[in-house]
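Human: We require from you a standard protein entry with sequence in single-letter code and fold as tokens, and nothing else.

Assistant:
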Amino acid sequence: MTQVQHLNALQLIELMEKKRFGTEYQPIISTINGEIFAYECLSRFFTAQGRNIPPDIVYASLHDNPLSLFQVEYEQKKLQLAYAPNSTDIFVNLDQDSYSASGALDHHNPFVKLFKNYSKANVIVELIENSEISDAVMSLSMIDNLAKNNINTAIDDLFNPQSMLSTSVIQMVDYIKLDKYVLKMCHSKSFMPLVNAMIAYAHETGKKIILEGVETQQDLLFAKQIGADYVQGFLYKKLFKNVS
């Protein structure tokens, strides 16, 4: 697995103190009528010179300090909800470690209260599937608490080669987001039956499928052919808010 670059302590402190944050909204489109169903809120970070810092570098650096991770994640979520398009469902990513850092794992959790107080539209919380068993256990706890508070959930990056599948997590979420790797493997005779089986399972159990990484009309046609309910990717324009 590729080692993710880290920021040093001084770089992180400067980023947090100056709140060099931004947010980007990527539309999620219905494959049936081509209308915008929702937007995913994407975190963006910047240097003092205005250059982009990849979010994975920022979050990888913050994981060494759970409280700092919580602080940045919480500020990002407040920012994303504040500038979100009106009256459209919103997908937000939430790290399991950020969620648990406050120590409140019930309705007192700061993220749960933030999402419940959002009145413009429905919030769907995305969980990133990965290979850590401890994260899968925390994901289950998190999903259970979100469900008890009437907050929908989604699993992100399913079929990414670097993540593993938790069947328990899959059963509990409302949306399944297929990683763009599915498009890369669309002609594989050993891979696609697994994808098709997951889509069939999702529809049989009332879940919705979102295919990520759609960049061309051919990708969109493929999404329709496999029965994806929604698509997301650079084929569609994004709204961008630089509010640092």
User: Anything to note?
Assistant: The beta strands are 21-30, 36-46, 52-53, 89-93, 123-128, 152-158, 175-178, 208-211, 230-232, 239-241.
